[in-house]
Design brief:
Radius of gyration: 18 Å
Helix content: 25-40%
CATH architecture of one domain: 3-Layer(aba) Sandwich
Low-confidence stretches: 1-11
Strand order of the largest sheet: 6-7-8-3-9-10
Number of helices: 9
Order of helices and strands: EEEHEEEHHHHHEHEHEEH
Shape: globular
Structural class: alpha/beta
Mean pLDDT: 90
Distance between the termini: 29 Å
CATH superfamily of one domain: P-loop containing nucleotide triphosphate hydrolases
CATH class of one domain: Alpha Beta
Strand content: 15-25%
CATH topology of one domain: Rossmann fold
Largest sheet: 6 strands, mixed
């Protein structure tokens, strides 16, 4: 079953991303620490791809490179065929922590991108529209300290979505939420992705979450990260956690991550 909203937005509104032979390392004093090793990935417009791997293997670094927050060392990063040379509003990174400004209201936090680009005066209605999409319009005047963890993460998503990104980069966005809030936010992420039709790269340590949310899942090795396997989910939305196909893929992913014997 596909959300009817998905049919109203062409999947081509998402960004095509090509990662070719990507390698990266950090210089720590007189030592060189490799974190990515010859990574290849093609993301089709409107596709959602999950990235799984051991903690510290380089997944977050990969997102920062795609966002243009880290300089490219080796390989190619192409957005719609053009080299990524720095940050751009079409590629937005959402972190695990909401990172909302505590002295700004929810409305003002979400409006930040428009304000920074000098567009707020003419596009103020978009702030309320975006808050409505994430279910926070009634909390437009609240401050971050007055929000629950899930609400704060919704505000962070709204702040990203108001830029109308064609590629949304999600770095463990639900990692600090309680289990019930996390389940609700997983459904919210699916709804927003289907409604907005952006492309998506999701970093998570939750195997089930990756399989529920994404078209494909890449499993990475320990640092320096290289792709061990690509898992094609091939199931319609909404997905059931007890779907035999998802359970099979979950077991395979856990085995690749060295955890298969524990499940």
């Amino acid at each position: 079953m596909v959300n009817p909203a998905q049919a109203t937005v062409p999947r081509e509104s998402g960004m095509a991303l090509d990662i070719r032979g990507l390698s990266h390392a950090f210089e720590l004093g007189d030592q060189r620490l490799p974190v990515l090793d010859d990574v290849d990935l093609h993301l089709q417009p409107g596709e959602s791809v999950g990235l799984l791997g051991p903690s510290g293997c380089g997944k977050s670094t990969l997102l920062r490179l795609v966002a243009g927050l880290e300089g490219l060392q080796h390989g190619q990063l192409l957005a719609d065929g053009s080299a990524i040379e720095g940050p751009h509003p079409s590629r937005v990174l959402v972190f695990q922590d909401p990172t909302l400004y505590p002295w700004r209201s929810v409305w003002d936090n979400v409006a930040l991108g428009l304000q920074a680009r000098g567009q707020l005066k003419t596009q103020r209605p978009r702030v309320d529209e975006t808050l409505r999409k994430v279910g926070l319009l009634e909390f437009r005047d609240a401050y971050p300290r007055q929000l629950s963890g899930g609400m704060a993460q919704r505000a962070a998503l709204a702040r990203a979505l108001i830029n109308e990104p064609r590629l949304l980069l999600l770095d463990e966005p639900l990692g600090k939420l309680d289990s019930l809030t996390r389940i609700a936010m997983q459904s919210e992420l699916i709804r927003l992705w289907q409604q907005q039709a952006y492309s998506s790269l999701l970093v998570t340590h939750d195997v089930e979450e990756a399989l529920l949310l994404c078209d494909r899942v890449l499993v990475f090795s320990a640092r320096p990260a290289r792709v061990l396997a690509e898992l094609k989910v091939g199931r319609p939305y909404p997905r059931r956690r007890d779907d035999p196909r998802l359970l099979e893929l979950r077991q395979h992913a856990l085995e690749l991550l060295g955890q298969g014997a524990d499940w």
